[in-house]
Amino acid sequence: MGRWKTGAVAVAVLVAACEEDFLLVTGVPAPPEDLQGSYYAYGVDLSWRLGTGWDGEAFRVYGKERRDQAFFPIAETTSCIDGWCSYRDTNVSSGVVYEYYVAAVDPDSGAEAESAYSVEVHVPRPTPPPAPEGAQAVALDQAVYLHWDDEPSSQEDFAVYRVYVRNDGENVLLGETDSPGFVDFLAKNGVTYTYFVTSLDDQGHESDYGEAASATPRPDYGGEVVYAYQDSAEVSGFRFQETELAQAVVPGADPTRHFRLEADSVALWLVPGSGVEVHAESRWTTALKCGPGSDPDCVSWEVAPRSGYAPAPIEAGPSLAYVFRVLGEDGKVRYGAVRIALTGLDQADRELVVLDWAYQTQPGNRYLDSASSFR
Fold first, then answer.
1. pLDDT value of residue 364
2. C-alpha of 40 from chain center
3. Residue 179: helix, strand or coil by DSSP?
4. Which of 26, 96, 142, 358 ranks highest by number of CB atoms within 10 Å?
């Protein structure tokens, strides 16, 4: 609510000194215009526009509780950018209505030019949203993928999630997202990272930290991140490689791709490229290969079927393995396997899958031993 204020009056004094008359004008600055006030995140934000004729003067902020009679000065500021100035008052209490006005102050005379009106701002009693639950961190190559339960987004006043990483004993903000997923591309291999997620409402109230989730990125040739073609075409394609030095994730329009990831309103799809076929059956697995040191309940799919391949798209689902039949650079048939480790969204709401893969470099060999392409 605005209330009209009485502005300061300009003063001109005509002084006679000796035999010369001169005019001494005590400077009265241009008053601030368009004063605005709003509450956010346990503080009151004030903003105003520089008045016509402003000449670099500072501004004095006055405030009071609405029930009080007199205003008192609470700050002076020169924080102005592109014709707008601002001040944030964090010395406020919940459940109180505050009233503010702003005055431009002449540095020489001390004369003030007040805003034409004051503004009232109600500081609510905060009710932070619930903390996100079920956070998990998935180690990738030079990255970590985080995902968590999306229940807080069902709150009417939900705004975003915030992702923090522990650094030297402090939790440092990595970024914000309105999706229950986030990819930390700043992570380095061989370093263990611990993350926390909070939720934020539309008034800036932040929840407690959710449970910690930790991961250690590691160099391998699984953990590939492939995005949906509709969201990030340049990293939506995939090509099995015969050397570990070659990049497996390729542009979705690359004519040499073996498949690309596509999304529609129903599902995610693995869409074979030219001359590529995928087996019509997908199998639930816990790993690409079950070997020494693997879980006793490990389930894998390590031998490619002889027949049953087609160039048709196949739905991509988590924990499912797929077998492809492709032509190598020598024109001979080879087999490759892909296992979808998980599906999700990143902080920009882009759909993605994280997958592990194996490729048999020997033509015609149907045994998909990942050691042939992984170290």
1. 92
2. 20
3. coil
4. 358
pLDDT (tens digit, 9 = 90+) per residue, 29-51?
999 999 999 999 999 999 999 99
End-to-end CA distance of the chain: 68
Look at residue 53 in the predicted model and tell me its pLDDT: 87
**Three-state SS at 64:** strand
CA angle centred on 193, ends 341 and 373, rounded to 5°: 40
Which residues contact residue 324 at a Cβ distance below 8 angstroms, ignoring those fewer than 6 apart? Answer: 240, 258, 259, 272, 276, 277, 278, 279, 335, 336, 337, 338
Instruction: Give residue 15's pLDDT.
Output: 36
On whether the CB atoms of residues 155 and 40 are closer than 8 A, the answer is no
Tokens for 75, please give them. Answer: 């700050």
Low-confidence ranges of the chain (pLDDT < 50): 1, 4, 6-25, 370-375
Measured distance CA(164)–CA(175) in Å, rounded: 7
Return the CATH fold of 136-215: Immunoglobulin-like (2.60.40)
Q: Which residue's entry shows tokens 């073609």?
A: 229
User: Is the pTM higher than 0.85?
Assistant: no
Alpha-carbon gap, residue 287 to 183, rounded angstroms: 22
* Inter-residue contact 62 to 98 (CB < 8 Å): no
